[in-house]
Amino acid sequence: MSTKIELSRITIDIPKVDHKKLKALAALHERSMREIIVELIKQHLECGLSHYPNKKTQDVLRNIEEGKNLVEAKNINDLFQKLGM
């Protein structure tokens, strides 16, 4: 007895340049654009659950959005020095 997976259809609009890139990528890998997109969606859904930012990362991102606890630096060396690196 075979089990049939129920499918849903979606339609998306993307810039023509991205469509051309996707089409070329698919041809290069001898796959369909659909196969590539479905694989990317699956990867994103699978890692989306395991890569949810932890509490500390969420706090840092919130501080950035609110402009709190930011370190201003003139250049990368100045930043490293201020961060003690």
Q: Based on helices, strands and strand pairing, what is the structural class?
A: mainly alpha
The backbone outline, from C-alpha atoms, is: elongated
Low-confidence stretches: none
State the helicity in percent bands.
55-70%
Average residue-wise pLDDT: 88
- Quick one: how many beta strands? 0
- Return Rg in Å: 21 Å
Give structural notes.
- It is a single chain.
- The protein has helices spanning 16-28, 33-50, 55-66, 76-82.
- Helix content is 59%, strand content 0%.
- The protein has one domain (16-82).
- It has 85 residues and is mainly α.
- The chain is elongated, with a radius of gyration of 21 Å.
- The model has no long low-confidence stretch (mean pLDDT 88).
List the helices and strands and how they pair.
Layout: H1 16-28, H2 33-50, H3 55-66, H4 76-82
Fill in the keyword field for this structure.
single chain, 85 residues, mainly alpha, elongated
Provide a compact summary of the structure.
It is built from 4 helices and no strands.
